[in-house]
Amino acid sequence: MKLSLVTPLSRAFIAPALVMGLVLSLSGCAYNSIFINYPSQIEPLKQELNSATPLADIDKLASNINGNDGLLYAQEAGRIAQVAGDFAASKKYYQQAVDAYTAFDDKAKVSVSDISATASSLVLNDNAIPYRGPGYERIMLHQYQALNYLFSGDYQGALVEVRRSNELQSSEQERYQKSQKSVQAMANGTIDAEVNKLGQAAGTVTSSFLNAYSYYTTGVLHEVLGEPNDAYIDYRKAAQITPDNTYLQQDLVRLAKQLGMPQYDEFKRRWGDAKLPNPKDGQVILIVERGFVPEKQALTVPFTIHGNWQTVSLATYMPNNTFVPETQVQGLGTVLKTEPIANIDALAITALKEDLPATLVRQVARVYAKSEMAYQVGKSGSPGNNAADIGSIAMQIFNVVTEQADRRSWLTLPKQAQIGRRYLSAGEYTLQLDKAPPAKIDVAAGKTTLVWAIDTGNYTRIYSIII
Q1: Strand partners, 214
Q2: How far, CA to CA in Å, does 429 sit from each of 76, 150, 423, 438, 462?
Q3: What is the C-alpha to C-alpha distance for residues 330 and 316, in angstroms, rounded to an integer?
Q4: Can you say where the TPR repeats lie in this chain (predicted)?
């Protein structure tokens, strides 16, 4: 007689056990988003950015850059180091993120690891898929890398990065449009309602790939580094996205006047004439970043297939009602009030809206796979078989537990960026942004003092450079 070690009870648990083994093989890192939602991982680091020790845990974060979410951790580590003023370390981390994006671009065929990750996502959740950031994150990565080069004194390196940022605003839009052709047929009422809700939350922002802040930063660098024609082009692109910013309007009038552009008369009529600087004056350009982008939340929808409970968990954003006030800057003559150039939170919301149809494709495949697993476990025994019933229940519990929304995104980005500009006599000035501690800056004749202020709530860090 041949003995079998597989009892009806153990057979019922084989499928859940096999899948659980797969889970454990994927969840060895301290930072892992398959079961631990990403915002909760990053929250302590954001709190440290709002303290006197912003770099306390950056090594712990950076040690996971080679993992599943490595690209995202590299972006976060780069931003944390940058906010803290360590531009050299930030440059290193950002370059690791750039390399990761390039690796995505250069893949000629699907690798074994990609197949494994995709298969894992079918029985687990989208967090098993290696993170490839949305287009707006990649654009801002190069913009911030340009600022690293600039504040490190490498002007040519900065120009290379801002040009790459501009190129990406076009190429990422094209990539998105191509990807949508394959998923447009998957739209349904629930997704349509969610897309409409996110569209209302994003306000007037219609594309996550068109970022006035990036165009403005590019324009500033072109202008101060002696490329006014390129600056004019970038200011026009920024003004098309954020048309009501009066600083942008005056930049266009001024450059059109200086360059003898045919649009000068039109701009002058619409926005008034521009005051050209006195040769003995210098100019101060302020870039102010405030707050943090919001976290994605989870929207879970329960339903039944084959009489078994299943859930779908989608990422979403709550209504975007938090108002960011303009920054009042004292110490530069009369009070200077900054104006918004871009709402980064609206870009994040729009990016999620653009990705929802593709997310639905993956959800349909995963729900079907999970429901079939539960159904087959339930069929493994005769009616009333307790082992099969227990196994089916275990499979349903496993499916509910593993269905986690993909809430990953670059969370140390600012909520909003603001700008201001003023011509001043050469000398030393003490500026104060709202109630933040005062900071000294120098203004040189014929030069530009770029002031970059990063407000994380309790702390405002100010960096300046004369160009």
Answers
A1: none
A2: 33, 22, 12, 10, 14
A3: 39
A4: 212-245
Closest among 134, 208, 202, 210 to 166, alpha carbons compared: 210
| Cα distance between residue 81 and residue 58, in whole Å | 8
Distance, CA of 335 to chain centre: 32
**What tokens were used for 181?**
């052709």
Greatest Cα pair distance, the chain, in angstroms, is 103
Q: How far apart are CA 296 and CA 315, in angstroms?
A: 6
Residues paired with 416 in a beta bridge: 290, 343
- pLDDT, one tens digit per residue, over 359-386 is 776 766 666 666 666 556 556 555 555 6
What is this structure's pTM?
0.83
Asked whether 305 and 371 are in contact (CB, 8 A), the reply is yes
Q: How far apart are CA 453 and CA 282, in angstroms?
A: 19
Hunting for tokens 């969840």 — which residue is that? 27
Nearest one of 128, 91, 167, 82 to 365, comparing CA atoms? 128
DSSP alpha helix (H) spans, 50-134: 58-62, 70-83, 87-106, 112-123
pLDDT tens digits, one per residue of 409-430: 999 999 999 999 999 999 999 9
CB atoms within 10 A of CB 219: 29
